[in-house]
Amino acid sequence: MACVYLSGCGGGGGGSAAVVVPATTLSGTVAGGAAVIGTVQITDSKGATKGATIEANGHYTVDVSDMVGPFVLKAAGRVGNTTVTYYSAATVADIGGTVNVTPFTNLMVSNIAAQMAETYFSNPANIANIGTLITPAKLAAAETALQAKLAPVLAE
Predict the structure, then answer these.
(1) Quick check: 40 and 99 in contact, CB under 8 A?
(2) How far apart are the first and last CA of the chain?
């Protein structure tokens, strides 16, 4: 169950195609116990941003074909009567896959930034650090650390 919140599972398609179309989107689900109703904003390593409305089921899709990874995702909206803001991160390798935004991904990004993600990314000077802050190795280490902390709770 925790894996659903911690990472996205890349989906492969069946069959064969004559032409391979390169992936150009980041998509996934934004949830915090239930779907978040609001917006998602993606910031790339050059400071460019794009956004989208989160669908009623929590799904979002953003075309990042003209953006430069890695990326920081910020989802803001409501879960029931509660206003929430969650962060996640993605690398170029995640384009075309699933990148969820949850309280767990928010913890991972906060741990990588060594402070609350919202505080870190509200400072425009830190946007220039996305390229060195968000790496596959740091994301994997943050996920492993969070899974280790959650393991005793999930085992009960």
Answers:
(1) no
(2) 13
Q: How far is CA 12 from the centre of its chain?
A: 19
Q: Give me the DSSP letters along 72-84.
A: EEEEEEEETTEEE
pLDDT at 67: 95
Q: Which of 32, 49, 28 is nearest to 95 (CA)?
A: 28
| 147 alpha carbon, distance to own chain's centre | 17
Angstrom distance (rounded) from CA 27 to CA 39: 13
What local confidence, expressed as pLDDT, does residue 6 receive? Answer: 44
Residue carrying structure tokens 């425009």: 124
The pLDDT value recorded for residue 68 is 93
* Segments of the chain with pLDDT less than 70: 1-22
- DSSP 8-state secondary structure symbol assigned to residue 10: P
Burial class of residue 145 in the structure, from the number of CB atoms within 10 Å of its CB (0-12 exposed, 13-18 middle, 19+ buried): middle
Q: What is the pLDDT of residues 29-74, one digit of tens each?
A: 999 999 999 999 999 999 999 999 999 999 999 999 999 999 999 9
Are 100 and 26 in contact by the 8 Å Cβ rule? The answer is no
DSSP strand pairing (37-44 vs 59-63)? unpaired
